Amino acid sequence: MEVQKEAQRIMTLSVWKMYHSRMQRGGLRLHRSLQLSLVMRSARELYLSAKVEAHEPEVPLSPVRSPDPRLHQSRESEAVAEAAPPDGEQPSPEPMDTREAPRAEETPARCAPRPTTKVSRKRRNSSLSDGGDVGLAPSKKARLEEEQEEGASSEVPDRLQPPPAQAEGAFPNLARVLQRRFSGLLNCSPAAPPTAPPACEAKPACRPADNMLNVLVRAVVAF
Amino acid sequence: MAGAGGGGCPAGGNDLQWCFSQVKGAVDEDVAEADIISTVEFNYSGDLLATGDKGGRVVIFQREQENKSRPHSRGEYNVYSTFQSHEPEFDYLKSLEIEEKINKIRWLPQQNAAHFLLSTNDKTIKLWKISERDKRAEGYNLKDEDGRLRDPFRITALRVPKLKPMDLMVEASPRRIFANAHTYHINSISVNSDHETYLSADDLRINLWHLEITDRSFNIVDIKPVNMEELTEVITAAEFHPHQCNVFVYSSSKGTVRLCDMRSSALCDRHSKFFEEPEDPSSRSFFSEIISSISDVKFSHSGRYMMTRDYLSVKVWDLNMESRPVETHQVHEYLRSKLCSLYENDCIFDKFECCWSGSDSAIMTGSYNNFFRMFDRNTRRDVTLEASRENSKPRASLKPRKVCTGGKRKKDEISVDSLDFNKKILHTAWHPAENIIAVAATNNLYIFQDKVN
Fold this sequence. Notes:
The complex is a heterodimer of chains A (223) and B (453). Chain A is an all-alpha fold.
């Protein structure tokens, strides 16, 4: 149980870091992304094997699940590394999509509900998030942190604990509102996935700009 | 630890007594990000010392001539030239900001009165010429003293311009700009011993350049998989052999080093030597891949050995033995139990560099809490020293520090939990011929030297 929790915590942390390294000045670093994905993979393996030991019934599901986070990773690397967007269906980086998990269409097909209810209950217990997916929790927190200016990454663990509740309350709604308002202003159709990456990458450039702009950028990033 | 490395021979490491010489940089507690030193490098003679910082600046220090009236101050280093090497840029095609941070500086061997160096940020390498000027031409025919063109009708006589002495001026001018050859972030540059070419390495590729030619480079290593989802390793550092111009090595995030011979083929995708130590399965953890990643690789001056630095240790390899290193030195083994918190606070991604003493008899590398470590290869002794402003009186000896690893903490020991992980020494340099070291601690540059007998 302990091992499982620890593995879960490290997985969450890794996703959080992956998401955040997109915001890094100078762009996403391939070496760091690779390392994060490796940590995440070993944490996931451990998590799954711990689950097997605990006689979970849904063992056969694990291989199906396994490729997912790795895909997130390599997609991210590619997006920045100018490589062509890989095989269609879901071109926009996933940490962002998962944030909208309750509404997004693709999530049901992907990681979120795949772990059985039991898994999500465990996550709730671990006080990391009350959402269903690993990806859900960190991305919300990441957004909150942005609000406080891009914080030093060393403060990650401290901030990781308290904020999820408020973050959840304030942001998705605001984002939705803003999105409705501004989707018309964007030249790309808001439904089109390409909206996300440019907004995200524009972020560093907007750093010195005022708060309103930041809020806008965040709202756009959310979509 | 006491006792001098007598006999006049430059012994290495801890057998000599190190003493404080100088510290450069502001004393301020709050450090501007731009002032953080990101690379340190002596030139071939050791008379010049260059630092690069996150703000894109290069500062060059020059060693003063020995002063007979102050016999104890053996050649101090003073600022010689400061210039802005790189500016922040924006890649409009990729919508990405390019940082101005200087990732590496490499000096070229000196060939005339001027000095040349290469500096690089994530994408662009620049060749700078640093030259002195103490004379100025006066009495041109077509322009007056202010540089304005003279009215041609007023020129009635021709004169020969004369060189007049003036105050010494040090000029840094960009001579070549090598751009647009790297898709990923450049982590290394290395000048070849043929003095004509150099290599630059990013996460997936290594390019070979001619120092005079900026519009083309040759790709000599490319490890980019066709499908990026199959990516399992990246290049972390690369360096040319100090004497054999056809040989270079590159290290990987998997903890291995490949030695390539450019004579065997134009594209060195196939290595000629592969240095790898089998992993100890008992020490596996979530973070094994991260801590085994090599952050720096350096050939010894002799060219016989190379040294690799991973997160917890530094290893010396004999180029003739690929199966295991000839020496493994633990830098801060006490951190092994703290890897999880180091992952949380991102320290585990720190890239420590390492360097050889001039005689190859000792090696040095950094750690946390402004500690740095030296390993004497002959006596197998090691020492932990601290770069700190306390006790930074001229010629004050550096007291060896000790980190308490479990058990009862003795006097003068510091416990692992009280180490300051924000104070890290990533970059150090050793004078090529003397026992003078430069240690970059955040925004300060410390210079230490051995005690004069």
